[in-house]
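Homework help board

Subject: predicted structure for assignment chain

Our instructor gave us this sequence and asked us to write out the predicted structure in token form, then describe one feature. I got the tokens but I'm not sure how to describe them. Can anyone check?
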Amino acid sequence: MPPRILVTGVTGTVGGELVKLLCARGVVPVALVRSPEKVGSVYAGCAEVRVADLSDELEARDAFARVDKLFLVTPVRPDQVEIGERLIAAAEAAGVKHVVKLSVMGAELEPGTLFGRWHRAVEVAIERSGMAHTFLRANESMQTMAGSWGATIAGDDRFCLPTGDAAVSWIDARDVAAAGVEALLDEGFAGRALTLTGPAAVTYSQAAAIISDVTGRRVEYVDVPEETARADLAGAGVPEPILTGILEVWGSQKAGSSAAVTSDFADATGAPPRGFGAFARDYRRAWMPSAKVTGTLSAP
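My token output:
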């Protein structure tokens, strides 16, 4: 009998794609959402949808009834660690056997970035539990380019960041989900941490050139001072400490922390990861003037 797998973060790119992939493999996942209003946004191919407020200990515990495994995506918010620890405690109390956690590349490094430290704190809580675990330490998601700067690219043919000539081994969120499926269904991944990257490091200028080729327009990347980026984020309503965390990630990229390429995705799935060109073509509509993209900032 296939395992019963509870998936959090199902309204996000990785969690939503993972639900689809599990359904395609004949596994009925349990998709966890925080409110009834979110139910309609969950892929309904085969998933069982449960509603639970993750800030409520009892609701979080009830969500794990008859669940064998957990795919854990923690939200990018100041109480991320508390939510993660609460879900881990609930999963352990319910007898969950294996947790696959979506983390970030470099979470194990010290002092690391704010977001990395948050993810590592949740990783440590999982390690201290009695459950088997797998960590997916993913580099920056390609979908961030579409979600965060698609509207600017579509409207102004440019996007601005304080990242200099930083090269990033972007990984497609669909590939992160594919690795997650393998980790959930193959017991051999227990106790492992996978660093997931794309096939090559791509600079922001190179990304702009690729998008230019896909759209037939000249799209430009503009390197701006950190002070300008901070003001833009504040103006968009990004609160502290998330604002500082985003700037830390960009600063870390500028220092070269995100350029490494690993074979972990290919080793886990038996297939090569998607390149940025393939992603840009698949998301062509995100770069076009008619695109309705929110421009919301995101992180893994």
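Reply (TA_rk): Your tokens look well-formed. For the description, you could write something like this. Residues 114-128 form the longest helix (15 residues). That's the kind of observation they're looking for.
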